[in-house]
Write the structure tokens for this entry.
Amino acid sequence: MKLRYNLLLLLLAFFAISSGKKTPTYPVSDIPENLLKGADAVIREDHTEMEVLSKDKVVYTMKYAVTVLKESGKDKALFKAYYNKLSNISNISATVYDAQGMKVKSIPQNEIFDVTAISGFSLYEDSRVKRIDPKYSVYPYTVEYSYQQKYNSAFYMHGWYVFSGYNTAVQDFKFKVITPLDFKFHYKEYNLEQGVKESEQDDKRVFDWEIANYEAPQNEVLSGYYENWGPAVYIAADEFELGDYNGDQRSWSSFGKFFQTLNQGRNNVPQETIDKIAGMLNEDMSDYEKISIIYQYSQEKNRYVSIQEGIGGQQPFDAETVDRLSYGDCKALSNYVVSLLRSFGFNAYYTLVRAGSYSGFTEENFVRSYYNHAIACVALEQDTVWLECTSPYNPCGYLGDFTDDRDVLMITEEGGKLVKTPSFTIEENNQTIGGKVEIQSDGSAQAITHGVYKGANYSKEYYLIVMDEKDRRKKIIKSIDIPHFELIDYKITPHKERKPWLEKDLTMYIPGFASKMGERLFFPLNTMNKSSFIPPYSRNRKTPMLVARSFSENDSIAYQIPEGYKMEAVPEPVNLSSEFGEYQCKAVMQGNEILYERSLKIWKGNYSTEKYNEFVEFMEKVAKSDEAKAVLVKG
Amino acid sequence: MKRTLTLVISIVIALQFCAAKAPIKFGKVDMEDLKMTVYEPDTSAVAVVLCKYGHFNANDFRFTTITRVKILKKEGTSLSEFSFPGKESMQVRAKVFNLENGEVVDEKVKNESIFKLKITDDVYRMQVALPNVKVGSVYDIETSQILLPGEFTFQREIPVKYCELVLEEAPEIEFRKRTSGFGTLQPIGRNTFVAKDMPAFKSEPFMDSRENYVTKFEFDILRINVPGYFKSFTTTWEAVNDILEDHMYFGGAISNGSAFLNDIKKEIELKSYEPYEKMVAAYEAIKVVKWNKYESLYASEPNLSGVFKDKKANAGEINMMLYLLLQKLDFDCAPVAMSTRENGRLNPFYPSLEKLNYMIVNVNLGDKNYLLDATEEFMPADMLPKRCLNKSGRLINKQSGIWVDLNTDKIDKEVVVYDLKLSEELDAEGTMVCEESEYAAFDFRKDYSEYASDEEYVQDFEMKHSGLRVKDFKLNDVESIYKPVKEEYDIKISSVAQKVGDMIMFNPLLFEQVKDNPFKLEDRKYPVDFGYKRNKLVMSTISIPEGYEFSTLPKSARFALPDKAGSVTINYSAIGNKLTVMYNIQINKEVFSYQEYPYLKQLYAMIIDKHAEPVVIKKNQDEASL
């Protein structure tokens, strides 16, 4: 395939020669060779100037040009700029150039669309987006955009990533911050070869960052947080104004105070509701039981609706409104639950979190807003209870893999406090399957299995409970990794405890369980839990590896041998051990049964780039061992 | 005598029904509905539509729908958020009812829960979040708009207990409706239609389109004659033809000049092509304009020169340009208006302009006709994209049009050949050669084009084939879309075989072993539609190490579906230390009815069982005794 690549270069050279008199702009021939490797688009330049005029006025001036090399990069030519009530966008211009760098067209103003930027799960948001589709597709071509965005708050100073998509190289990146002399902000650099250049010009402070020839990053599995491998700078104003509120990002404590002010006076739960709940509580109850009743009251009464309004989506609507409408977004529901708990004397706190199954990255020594979600936290003398207020089903005190194991900002009267949500231990994040399989002499089998799911597995299985019967049956059948079988019976039993667990009982008839060949029956020993996650082997990995959660699996299945047959052979026991985890499996004869036992443990952790392929090999060995077969023979 | 009486009674009943009042009134809820806790016909339903009432009023031409929903489970509460597209004038009102201490408490939905969002300048979206909806709640929601909606559905993803549609006759408006779906509708008089106890609608895999099976009416306005406004619409397929001929964005767009295609035309005429080659050249030349992924029957502008300059266009525009170019080159060609698979089939007995959403080109060459769609870069001229394989379309011409068959004789064809050597370490090394033709080749090219680099392609290939490492590979004819694609890989597969006692087992079908039944679900209500026929051939040759011999080989087998609709052959043969396995599956029919579903399911079950059988080798007896 090297040929194709050379052809491209040749073509580019041709373009360079053939382009005539006018000075070309962004000719493709100017792209250094190393930036074409694995790239479908190249950012030719990305220049941003951020001028801070005051705590409530920041002006961004941006210009960037992207060359789309081939079809797979086509979306990278689209322009999208988001804004909301606290910002506006102006002076958008867009120009298309062909491969030689000759101007094809300017995009007229009436082709700049202004649409709502509502995300898939939101019912209402005030954010909007300006969009441009350059409507050109003779590859390669370049489109250059420039625009200005004014923010009415220094809260929106975020910093930058040089990354602008996988398979996208960046040729020339510049970021400049200009501030008044008395304006203070803090910044943190990641993976930069060359740090900031600071200077003073005309009574202003100027900060310059530059990166040239950044090769196209590839999408690598388990690469973890961008900050571990990609160039970035985070910026946050020491002090800002947002709407009518003053904010201070110098410490977690002061930053938390800002959110506390936003929420002030929003704890107005109607007395009637408090009285109603008081009737449900009594003196003999433990604190956990009381919290549980209050939490369930909100779960049953309210539902989650995403309506992002108010102070740039930072301020919840008040408890009285939630009480009246019986719905709210994560902020409103968390504020409601916190307000209820406080009226009963609990030290409950509104808590901000960066949610997502990859736990977010919080730099303890760098204060800024990392957050996209809110939860509630109750501090007891010897205990802390965490509450996910948007879930109607979670047991009280259970956080799933959406918010587990990460730094969160708890908002207290004294200000913000950085605390960590609980993580599941390897024992807690467990799946255990036991079962009995009766093999018949025709190769068919009846299998009865019992699975127990704990930790993050609980929420992954719980979705089955909330479906209607037909869909549930379909989902269960689909989830069973046996090619053809009849599901005779099933039962799902959730145990909504503080550390919840879920039981799944299945009874199946598997017609072709064992392959009958002459005198022999061959059958797979691991039918219920074959390892399915095998990451791809990598030839040229650049990023380190992150395994975000520890987990463990235990299987124990007894195979009953049919009359007239005996065991001829089973595989040797397997014991694999590596720094990533452990795997054991063995099959032994016990009476007229073959007992198969298997266990897998994977440790969470950060591993270096070089370790990645070792991990792949480990997982491949596990998958191979999971394919093991036993052989029965007549006699 | 008795008979007359029955007749009289039934007339009376019919009259009563005709005069009957609306089945529900907005905001008037029965205590019974609030007390209800389970919907007996489907006890697992999370919510049920108690009544949906659609009414077209002949006096003010407004169409009003009232829907009353009962929430039965917590999961059903999310069915109280709505999002409707509409114009600014669209009206919505809603009320929520709850039972509190035996009393009905109702709550009118206020403006704070209704959001009118501006999407673009003239398109709005109403978003409504009903307050206080919990298990046990009942709510009414009413929407109204001018004129009929495009469709009225009697079935939903939750069961519908009762649904009634009243279409008052208005002399000024003539419309046609088309029933689709599997549910039973009961007509009462001329204008009223009732559906009772409609089960929840569930989509199934390999379904051509949900639109063909959900119970609904589709409306087509035939004529509106309101003072100051007259328009005639579809009454026959011939009339549809004429409307399109006159339509500014259809007939207009293909008669407003094609000078912008002069250069391409000249270039093609410079070459001395045979007619077929010339057609292909025109088809390929139009592909400089890329498809913007919009399916459309119409052009967005009455003149196509602008979109030609943009080099990006919708499906209708691309094929109109193709039509214009072919016409310039003196081909006997005509546009074909059609409906895509997603959009549902056309019905010969219910002419409908609304149902048309796509356009392709028919070319007559000698005694053959070709259907062309130039939207897909990797599609050769003699094949249509899968979305177009939807029974039949209407050829549009000056003679009022005719039906054109959209079925294809092209298939999805794949050949995979392994030639491997098994080592004593139980690894296998050798070559893997794949060849894809027709639809399989198209799918490969399209998929391959999505990779930013060959490194990514190989990495993904290895991920799909666990344990496989590609040492070297070559792709042939990826760019020559009129030829099959051929991929040649030098591979190594680690631990391909397993040792159990003195036996070594392996599966000679390797990655072609079918392990998953695509038809896992127990029953099926709707047909299975593959779109086109399939043929897959696997040849696997594996040499075993010196000193070993074949101990057990699976038996060769052949299975077939009734009426030669499909067949499977698998042959195992061993000569010396070489094993050869040949596996072939042919699906010779595009559509299988739900009655044929069990056969398909069984066929796959048999393939899976056969494929699971391992080959067993053992150390040579002589060697072992040494």
Summary: Chain A touches chain B through 81 residues (CB under 8 Å).
